[in-house]
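Form 12-C: Joint structure prediction
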Amino acid sequence: MTETTLHSLQGDQDPSSPGRDIWDQFKTHRGAVLGLGFFIFIILAVAFGPYLWGLDAQFIDIRARNQGPSLLHPLGTDQLGRDTLARLLVGGRVSLSVGIVAMVLSLFLGTLIGVVAGFFSWIDGLLMRLTDLFLALPLLPLLLVIIMLFRDTLRTAFGPETGIFILIVFVIGITSWMQAARIVRGDVLALKEQEFVLASRSVGTPSRRMITRHILPNILSPILVSATLGIANAIITESVLSFLGLGFPSDFPTWGRLLFDSTDYLQQYPERVIWPGLAISLTVLSVNYIGDGLRDALDPRIRGR
Amino acid sequence: MPEKRPAVLDVKDIETVFNTRRGTIHAVNSVSFSLEPGELLGVVGESGSGKSVTMMSLIGLLPTPPARVTGGYVKFDNIDLLKADAQQLRAVRGAKIGFIFQDPMTSLNPVLTIGFQLMEPLRTHMGMKKAAAKKRAVELLDLVGMPDAERRLSDFPHQFSGGMRQRVVIAMALACDPKVLIADEPTTALDVTIQAQILELVKDLRRKLGMAIIWITHDLGVVAGIADRVMVMYGGQIVEQAPVRELFENPQHPYTRALIETVPDIGAERPERLRTVEGQPSILYARPSACSFRTRCAHAFERCGKENPPLLVTDKAHHVACFWDSATGEPRNV
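Section 2 - Result
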């Protein structure tokens, strides 16, 4: 701490901008930089990969089925002779976008409910019982009902793939915000008792500004941790849904779908489980590292060191 | 006090209760006082005597529930703060009444720069643009004696020492030129040398800016050095109130006398045992119907257990709430 003070007293003449500071700190976290690099690589790969890799993910070449790695099919083919690499690339698009969008949605809901419950004690009980209610709901029957009720409407409105995408993101979002809400509420309750909240009220800060300016930046780290876990959770839930036939159409590849398709052939072709599994775990791992680095970078108390 | 000027803050009979699971606690019982422009009023009393709760009740800073202000009025700027709505209160807080808290380590938000926190009241109350607010923030930091003010705006609270943080907190409270500054034990968390610096700073600021100050403390030495008038609180009531000199020369309430006796004498030949006021203040589950100090009082007699002594005016603007007359050593005839 003394060193920091000295440094900021003598040090750099132009005070650096906060954005720059955050990036400088982020760079010192090696895992986070690697994670970020890998995450960008995956995003680029699934965004542009299918165009570069000429093979069609849906093309069935029954004579080339169950092949091992070769020049034509570097990751082999499945039981219908479809190219695994092409399916992995196309599947990543859906899995990643479902993961990210569903995570944002559930985090938004969770943070909103957690902050409101923690900050306004008159509504705390109500919101937390609602959270308990959602936690207690059996997930699968609920999903079944929601999907049965809304699938056809959404399909006709947005087309089969977009419709199901919206539905799945929505379903995952509203069934996974509870953990975040509980964590956030707990942190807000603790923060609310801090003297700086009282101090800021004593200068006449209205509640909304208090939440956005004083509370939210202080609970960033649990939110970021929930976010990184949320992406993984969403990708996996999507694969469960696809597996149950409630998600995307069965010929439409996603990482989860690929994983479940290949479990049937686990004994003959174990490598087929490895590729989508690896893609999911590496994505989750890299997001975790990014979250870790971001948390350190955004906390000025750590950043100073 | 030579001439009577209209008070900036007029508090009459305020009552604050806390509704707890074990019953209603009467934390503030019929407290009345007024504050003249430019005056420094010291408020002393031990922990739990209702000093902070009284001051926080004035501008609605207590969490409700459990706290509730049940009676009285607080006249400030021709409005009754106890009846004011949330918007009026927000306009008063920070802009016209500043508040300084006890612990500078926790009263600044750790994730925001002090520049941002200083500019916040300026932008909400005075509608300043960013550049203007920044200029004023630098002025404020200069005013409270922060070296290299402009560059330190972008520093975070953890980069400051305790004394410097308290200066920032004071600067925040002064941001909009308040008429009244309420300081809730602002030097308690600081060491003695820094405490002396902050006291000098406040005296200096008062000379320059001329606002009235309410200084809550349990340090009699601080009060003696800084206050014009002193209010001694016990059990949520004012037990004695007098100009500072008069109070120290002629303390009349047994509690005040006991408090003054507890101050160790550094000039004494032989170090003596530190004197204390025996016992604990009682928790008031009902409005006091008797003197709440009687269980710890050396002079208590029968009447003290039957009636709650009212605040009596003796000479020289000296008020005391006691049935025992310190001048004669006999019960008072009232």
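Section 3 - Comments
Chain B is about 30% helix and 25% strand. The first helix of chain B runs from residue 51 to 58.
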